[in-house]
Amino acid sequence: MGGGLTVSGHLQPLLKAAGGSLTGERLLEVRRAFEVADRWHSGQFRRDGSPYITHSVAVAVILAELGSDHEMLCAALLHDVSADAASREEAFGEPISNLLRGMRKLDSAQRRPPDWPASTDERVLMLKLADRLHNQRTIRGLPEARQRVNSQENLDVVAPVARRLGLTEVEAELRRLAMANLSGLGGAQACFGVITAGAIMLPADVRGRWLEEWLGELLALPGGRARLTFVFWLMAGMPRMALTLRRRDALGRRGGGGAAAAGRAVVRCLRWVVRSDLRTWALLTPLLAWLVLDAAAERLADAVVIAITVPPVLVAAVRAIRARLGGGDGRG
User: Largest Cα–Cα distance in the chain?
Assistant: First the structure.
């Protein structure tokens, strides 16, 4: 089992996340599940070198933060333990056994039903979502081909499941991490960072869908020059697109009343910002700094590329936006 200090050290994040919800028999059962998982995963390590048990605990922590009960936490701790080991070493009762059976069914390509996102029990789906979220957080240890497959599946299949279950924060993090991973794998991180910053102008409820579509187009382009051209024209047309989408949104909510006024207000605001270099760069500089620092945390060379290539793209995009909006020459 690895000794008392190791157990308490690995288990501590879960106990902290669960707070006062784990007491008495519930706490004992969670500790028992941890001990079984710790024995089973003893000597096993993840690709990043961390003990495998840390993944099981991390999945349980995600569920604890979502307010799941002790049965879900036990299932999370045991989800990568073989069925024989779990049943032989400890008896955990039918609810936990059902969760584990459902999870193993989803993990088996032969047994997983084609309509699993709709036909699977919601508690099993929550367990799967937590597993996928932590795997996406730590995906860098996988081969690039596997990273691409998993990230794309999380965008196309898993994130919509989170949305259907009302887990909006899980959905948002899955999408953000998966898109960041795909853009990095495709060498398009700098360009996609600019698009992400510009997409702030779009309504929040459609922003994610458009970003996914643009990322797919960006990755399909043959090289850096084509990507920069794509970003330039996309950024130039972003204000008009934002205005159209917001008008449509206003029409849907108000039946047309006030939509024109809202559209004019957006245009006036954008024109006021881009009329002045000071105002424009006061908004863009923090975004550029964030892009550089975020890239530097992963790979210094990417940060250098962003610092060199992105500012000229932004300058060209601002000029194009000024031309479309009649925003002046930047000296006002």
Answer: 76
